[in-house]
Design brief:
elongated, 808 residues, mainly beta
């Protein structure tokens, strides 16, 4: 399997210089995470899918993401790289996050419609150190009945359909029986809800009567709800035929002038005026072939208000398909399991992502790929358990009619929005009031160079990727405001930079650089989190019974302590890790730990003024004399250097002394080797001090290891001003480590396996030439069963959704 980093790097090379422009629309996106519940400090792996006009969006490059806490506070923001309608990356839940839920907000430049809003996804957080959720006593559920007339209005003298839905206080469907009665004592009709809580009543309503619903909830409590008043006016219905959908209008008034607007998703189809007549239906035909999958809406208005509205899902029988899946596993400790996935019949290609999760980790029934792409962008209110209701509803149109959808559409416009891959931009900043002189001096140097036919110079821009062995340099030009851009700089994760002014006359001017990668305006949408139901959240946690037993221990104070804790590295530690990788081949092996690690380039004195390595050591190393190992080679001690330096004639007489006084030559040779101590400390980014040290190279007390930049990296101009910074780029792509136990010996020697995610593969694509694929996962030490989730999109824009629990 190709490494994700390599894959995305190849994508970026293909995209440079080839970006497209897109018209103002709204995006449909969905994020599939490896699981729905996480511990603080866990890594969240995700794949993003992006659609436009019912098909895979191929002209998007950037997804702007915010991580939000339960109170709506922004925790962090990032940008993910999109290629051919998908992205794949990961992020970490903050190690000390105290909440029980955390939210992802995301958007793209397709969300240029004024009334569009960000996508949101909820993740559950397991707080294992908090009160045991299984001890919570739940209140008895309460029940409510929701009624919705077809078209939103009951017209007198005409046949009307009344939609009924019954739910409990958690948003779950309730089975009830009841009847409709009028105020004259008549029983009109009986009803009984289905497994999704839906029922319909169809009858002719009279203007001179009031109607009620009498029903009994599962606890035996009787209720009576008034039905909406019967009125005179106009209403709209959407009627399916073989190849058409009819927008059907009717009124119970002699004549009525109305405006009718129709759209699908966020795309407007038409807005037109009609004159309706009593007793006559007006039918407006729409070809199904001209409509993409999505929610079709029709709204009737007069000059003052909305009279009637209705909705219909186009493609309700085809919009969601399920692959053919077979799962086999013995469900023994760390045993092998296999999953075979076959394309749905009639499909030629599918872009999929798959995950296998411990069965005791709960799943979130509030969202799925179908609900996030087609339902959530249009819902005016948070959807409660939409996937559960959708799966249980036999007549899918009842679910669609039972929701409140946003009927505002993105206006069509010839204005194009450009979405190129992001590049690094920067601006040189000086102290207030000093830029004018600096730039005047710069132009003076440029003009001097022109007289000598020398090229115009700019700044030296150094950059180094986290895993790269050394920094690379390129020269960049800046404008009259100090702004510059780094071409073809599509980066992932982060990039360490080093900026140096090239002209000698300007090198000593202290400066900073303000970088920009993602434009803050592209995160412009307000934070969005759904209204949560506490009882529903508690029920999800109750499903996690026993999960904590293998994952924490008790300390001396009775507090629960996680066995494995991911510690977020500080910036200093990250820099130490980078330098350790950079110089690991030069460091002699030793079993001792350094007493202190020094990073001169982060020292405030070094940043502000020029300082030699000798002065830096005297200031920072807690010893009067030290033995020095430079780049893995022992070169001597600072005490001998101080003594020898008093004789100004030593360096000029080294060769002569070598013959006449070998012992004296040894001291002089040591001084020659230690001459680097008088160079600028900025050329030596990494020092380690040991009070006791033992290695094949040297053993002793008060030992200092010094590591030097390579010649290509060194700035030999003492005191030259430069600026270091680590900047973030695209969210890092990476490859999830799928644990493998190839032999019985490997299983026996591995110890306790506490993984919650057993398998994750974001690029599980299937095509007609290879219509089925198989993958293998390995159980953890608990092996009580697994959740298998497969989601994605077909080439025709259909949603692929499969989620099953496979028990032991």
């Amino acid at each position: 399997m190709m490494n994700y980093i390599v894959r995305f790097f190849l994508y970026s090379l293909l995209l440079v210089g080839s970006f497209q422009s897109i018209h103002a629309q709204t995006s449909q996106l969905y994020l599939h995470t490896d699981r729905d519940y996480y511990l603080p400090g866990d890594t969240v792996w995700f794949k993003g899918y992006f659609m436009k006009d019912g098909a895979i969006a191929r002209d998007l490059h950037n997804m702007y993401m915010k991580l939000i806490d339960e109170e709506g506070k922004e925790i962090r923001r990032s940008v993910a790289f999109i290629k051919d309608g998908v992205t794949a990356s990961y992020f970490t839940i903050p190690a000390g996050y105290p909440g029980k839920e955390i939210f992802i907000n995301a958007n793209t430049l397709l969300d240029s419609c004024v009334k569009s809003r960000p996508y949101f996804k909820k993740l559950g957080i397991l707080q294992l150190s908090s009160e045991n959720p299984t001890s919570t006593v739940e209140k008895a559920p309460e029940f409510r009945l929701v009624q919705q007339p077809e078209g939103g209005i009951l017209l007198s003298g005409l046949e009307n359909t009344l939609l009924i839905q019954t739910l409990d206080s958690r948003g779950y469907p309730a089975f009830v029986k009841g009847k409709m009665v009028d105020d004259k004592g008549g029983d009109i009709a009986e009803f009984m809800t289905d497994s999704a809580g839906f029922a319909t009543l169809r009858t002719i309503f009279e203007l001179d009567r009031r109607y009620m619903l009498q029903w009994e909830d599962p606890l035996g409590i009787k209720h009576q709800d008034n039905i909406s008043p019967v009125v005179q006016g106009a209403k709209v219905a959407l009627v399916k035929q073989d190849s058409l959908v009819l927008v059907q209008l009717q009124t119970n008034q002699p004549s009525q002038l109305v405006h009718v607007s129709v759209g699908i998703g966020k795309r407007a189809l038409f807005d037109q005026e009609f004159n309706l007549k009593e007793g006559k239906k007006t039918n407006i035909p729409l070809k199904k072939a001209d409509l993409e999958y999505g929610i079709l809406q029709a709204v009737v208005r007069d000059q003052q208000k909305v009279l009637s509205r209705t909705s219909l899902l186009i493609g309700d029988e085809q919009i969601e398909v399920s692959p053919i899946v077979s799962v086999s596993s013995t469900f023994q400790e760390k045993s092998e399991g296999s999953v075979t996935v076959t394309l749905p019949k009639g499909e030629k290609m599918a872009r999929l992502s798959v995950s296998v999760v411990d069965a005791e980790v709960g799943v979130d029934t509030t969202q799925s790929m179908l609900t996030d792409i087609y339902f959530q962008p249009l819902s005016q209110q948070p959807l409660v358990n939409p996937q559960l209701l959708w799966e249980r509803t036999e007549n899918k149109n009842l679910f669609i009619q039972g929701q409140t959808w946003d009927d505002s559409y993105c206006p069509s416009s010839e204005l194009t929005v450009v979405d190129p891959p992001l590049e690094i931009q920067g601006q040189i900043r000086l102290k207030k009031g000093s830029w004018a002189k600096f730039y005047a001096d710069y132009l003076d140097e440029v003009n001097k160079g022109k007289k000598g036919n020398l090229p115009v110079r700019g700044i030296s821009f150094g950059y180094q990727y986290p895993e790269a062995p050394r920094m690379q340099y390129t020269e960049l030009m800046f404008d009259k405001n100090g702004r510059f851009a780094v071409p073809n700089s599509i980066i992932f994760d982060s990039l360490e930079t080093r900026v140096i002014q090239i002209y000698r006359k300007l090198k000593f001017t202290p400066f900073t650089v303000q970088y920009k990668f993602a434009d803050p305006n592209n995160y412009r949408y307000p934070i969005l989190i759904p209204v949560q139901t506490a009882n529903a959240s508690r029920k999800q946690l109750n499903n996690l019974k026993g999960l904590h037993s293998d994952y924490f221990t008790m300390d001396a104070h009775g507090n629960r302590v996680l066995q494995t804790v991911q510690v977020t590295r500080t910036r200093r530690q990250r820099e130490i890790d980078r330098l350790q990788r950079r110089f690991r081949t030069m460091e002699p092996h030793t079993v001792h730990q350094p007493d202190s690690i020094l990073l001169p380039l982060t020292d405030s004195v070094v940043i502000k003024t020029s300082q030699s390595l000798r002065d830096y050591i005297a200031r920072k190393v807690p010893a009067r004399s030290v033995s020095i190992i430079l780049n893995g080679r022992f070169v001597g001690g600072t005490g001998a250097v101080t003594k020898a330096a008093a004789d100004g004639s030593i360096l000029s007489n080294i060769a002569k002394t070598a013959k006449s006084d070998p012992d004296r030559f040894k001291e002089l040779d040591q001084q020659n080797q230690l001459s680097f101590l008088d160079e600028d400390v900025s050329n030596y980014p990494y020092l380690k001090f040991y009070r006791t040290y033992s290695s094949p190279v040297y053993s002793g007390d008060n030992v200092l290891l010094v590591f030097e930049y390579s010649p290509a990296e060194v700035n030999r101009d003492f005191g030259a001003a430069d600026y270091h910074e680590t900047i973030a780029g695209y969210m890092p792509p990476g490859e999830f480590y799928n644990k493998v136990y190839p032999t019985a010996a490997a299983r026996l020697s591995a110890g306790l396996d506490t993984r919650l995610t057993l398998y994750w593969e974001p690029f599980f694509d299937i095509n007609k030439d290879n219509s089925f694929r198989k993958f293998v996962f390995y159980n953890n030490s608990r092996n009580n069963g697994v959740w298998v989730t497969i989601q994605g999109l077909t080439e025709t824009g259909k949603v692929v959704y499969y989620r099953r629990m496979i028990k032991k």
